[in-house]
Design goal:
- The protein has a single domain, classed as BirA Bifunctional Protein, domain 2.
- Helices cover about 35% and strands about 20% of the residues.
- It is built from nine helices and 15 strands.
- Helix 1 crosses helix 9.
- The chain binds adenosine monophosphate and magnesium ion (MG).
């Protein structure tokens, strides 16, 4: 199926074809390997929150394209549908488990033009990881391991499935290359995130991307200690992550600079003021995007049992 033909797509009322079942088998294997490896490394498995007064503002971020924010009233209070669990991760890693992961459903009402990118959904799931006192490089190693080991397992156990999909997939070799965003902008212009991986066989890390207040910004050098992982073959960004801000003054100043409504972030600010907000680092991997890459499909919605294509609201 082409990207364009997905605009207007809805699930047909007939048994699924073999391709879809094969994709579910690949996804099952990936989640099995990833969760097992994290558990073996001593991570807690935390369950997600869906509605909360606080969620990710997603702003400022070069990828921002939200048409509408979902807010509802419950028990006389205004709550928002989770755009990412960053606020909850920062609170939890500071007050409780020092390393954990969450399979976290996100609702982001992306602009409908994004149906044609092949990479955007309005409901998707992130594999979120956060580790107290960690650095960017620690998070690189964790995800390189998850990616390499899950692809290895798919190739080993699901060779027939890959063949049915016509997917010839290479096991990437860690450590993946690391580039600075500025270098890439100079080399490729504003479409660097697509261009960079066109010239690579393996995924690549890109660091130093100006964005939300919670990512750590080294004010002395102007460097942002954050990163994306870009997949080859035009699949694009699959992970965003960072070392995190933890100082009250700086958080407060950055929120003001970005025009962020501080009332949603009162708990983080109070913890920071008391010196209880721990430094940490973490990231989120888009599960559907990663599965789409492994399966080699045109549109990320092809991996969903009930596709959530921007602009298309199916019967169920
Ligand atoms: P973010 O923190 O906004 O970069 O989101 C983390 C990851 O979630 C991204 O790197 C993508 O893999 C995935 N993601 C973000 N937005 C979408 C979307 N609209 N549809 C599918 N996956 C997404
Ligand atoms: Mg991102």
């Amino acid at each position: 199926m082409t990207k364009a033909s997905f605009v207007g797509f809805s699930a047909p009322a007939e048994p699924m074809d073999e391709r879809k079942l094969v994709i579910f088998r690949i996804q099952t294997k990936i989640l099995d390997v990833m969760t097992r490896r994290l558990l073996e490394k001593g991570f807690y498995w935390i369950l997600p929150v869906i509605l909360s007064k606080a969620t990710d503002p997603l702003w400022p971020d070069p990828e921002f394209s939200i048409e509408k924010k979902i807010e509802v009233e419950i028990y006389g209070e205004r709550v928002r549908a989770m755009q990412s669990m960053i606020v909850h991760k920062r609170v939890l890693v500071s007050l409780g488990p020092e390393k954990f992961f969450i399979l976290s459903p996100n609702i982001r009402i992306e602009r409908r033009q994004r149906a044609a990118t092949g990479r955007h959904l309005y409901e998707f799931t992130q594999l979120e990881v956060e580790v107290a006192d960690a650095k960017m490089e620690d998070i690189f190693r964790i995800f390189e391991d998850l990616i390499t080991k899950s692809i290895e397992a798919v190739k080993r156990d699901l060779g027939g499935e890959l063949k049915l999909l016509g997917r010839d997939l290479k096991i990437p070799e860690p450590p993946f290359k690391v580039y600075k965003r500025k270098e890439l902008e100079e080399r490729y212009g504003k479409d660097w995130s697509i261009e960079v991986a066109r010239h690579s066989i393996d995924p690549v890390w890109v660091t130093d991307i100006p964005r939300q207040f919670y990512d750590y910004e080294d004010e002395a050098t102007g460097e942002w200690r954050n990163f994306d992982l870009i997949l080859p073959e035009g699949f694009g960004e699959v992970i965003s992550g960072a070392e995190r801000e933890y100082e009250y003054e700086k958080l407060s100043r950055k929120m003001e600079r970005d025009g962020i409504d501080k009332s949603q972030y009162g708990l983080i600010l109070r913890l920071a003021e008391k010196g209880l907000l721990k430094p940490s680092a973490g990231a989120g991997l888009g599960v559907e995007r990663f599965v789409a890459y492994v399966a080699g499909v045109e549109h990320v919605a092809e991996v969903q049992p009930f596709p959530r294509v921007p602009g298309v609201v199916p019967e169920i």
